[in-house]
Automatic annotation (TrEMBL):
Residues 198-298 form the Fe2OG dioxygenase domain. Signal peptide: none annotated. PROSITE patterns: FE2OG_OXY. Keywords: Iron, Metal-binding, Oxidoreductase. It holds the Pfam family DIOX_N. It comes from Gossypium mustelinum. This is Fe2OG dioxygenase domain-containing protein.
Length: 322
């Protein structure tokens, strides 16, 4: 069982000072960003309506992936009730049950990114890095051989069924999105998924308790996702930021939308035409926040490299510029 103190416990203690291991170096601090959320909100992250004609969807996806590495999808086909019910169940796990019950599902500290309830993802010692102001539950969901619902919370009672159903819906949506992304580059629909191989899917529910010093901390430090594509849903509190043209912009939660984040391996597969999205999460002093991220990584046996058709395209473009 993981021995780290849960951030939620620190928050509930009513501390006025943040423990030193959570204080970011000055260059990484968000400063007063959370005091002026309305002014710094990013209202222009593209939103793509998947119910529209493909002739309008493909250029919208192409522009979003090239310019942002992120976009919302609406009318995506995932039941709104499932999104709401899963958010509610995950928030309930963190907020409504005794810590001693939650700790029965604690992560194993001897394995990196082990499944379960934790606070220190991919950190092996207290001095290795500044800690994020968040708790999380990580679920191994695909391939099915990795899926073990008995390792997931049994409270609230609908939790396991909701998580399994959500996993299946996310896989179907990712396959649809990768096909559209492939076609938007003039490739056959199966191209990017073929390059990725069998999905290794993890679903991480992150809980960000109120923080007494949001100007000194981060809920999740700046990074890009290492896999192929990430799908994320937020609650209505907000706190996700994306890096765009050197500025950190807050992504407003869009009701019933799912946020798509291009990850590192897709940038490689598309030979840099589609950009990975650098992002982070800020904290706030008054409200707990929940987000649920679904990561889709390439199969473990796959070697990732640029699609040959895109290498040829770039060679032709470069010759044309000579």
């Amino acid at each position: 069982m993981e021995g780290a103190v849960r951030v939620q416990i620190l928050s509930q203690m009513g501390i006025s000072k943040v423990p030193s291991q959570y204080i970011q170096p000055p260059k990484n601090r968000p400063g007063s960003v959370t005091e002026n959320i309305a002014d710094l909100s990013c209202k222009h992250v593209p939103a793509v309506d998947l119910s529209s004609e493909k002739e309008s969807v493909l250029p919208a996806i192409r522009e979003a992936c090239r310019d942002w590495g992120a976009f919302h999808v609406i009318n995506h086909g995932v039941p709104t009730k499932l999104l709401d019910d899963l958010r509610r169940a995950c928030f309930s796990f963190f907020n409504d049950f005794p810590m001693e019950d939650k700790l029965k599902y604690a992560c194993n500290p001897n394995f990196a990114a082990s499944e379960g309830y934790g606070s220190r993802l991919l950190v092996s010692s207290e001095n290795e890095t500044v800690l994020d102001w968040r708790d999380y539950f990580d679920h191994h969901t695909l391939p099915l051989s990795r899926r073990n619902p008995s390792a997931w919370p049994h409270f609230p009672p609908e939790y396991r069924e909701l998580m399994a159903n959500y996993s299946d819906e996310m896989k179907a949506l990712v396959q649809r999105l990768l096909a559209l992304m492939s076609e938007s580059l003039g490739l056959k629909a199966s191209c990017i998924e073929d390059a990725v191989g069998e999905f290794y899917q993890n679903i991480t529910a992150s809980y960000y308790p109120p923080c007494p010093r949001p100007d000194l901390t981060l809920g999740l430090q700046s990074h890009s996702d290492i896999g192929a594509i990430t799908l994320l849903i937020q609650d209505n509190v907000g706190g996700l930021q994306v890096l765009k043209d050197g500025e950190w912009l807050l992504v407003d939660p869009l009701p019933n939308a799912i946020l798509v984040l291009v990850a590192d391996q897709t940038e490689i597969i598309t030979n840099g035409q589609y950009k990975t999205c650098v992002h982070r999460a800020v904290t706030n002093a008054s409200k707990a926040r929940l987000s649920i991220a679904t990561f889709h990584d390439p199969a473990k046996t796959v070697r990732i490299s640029p699609v040959s058709d895109l290498l040829l395209f770039c060679t032709v473009c470069n010759k044309g510029e000579e």
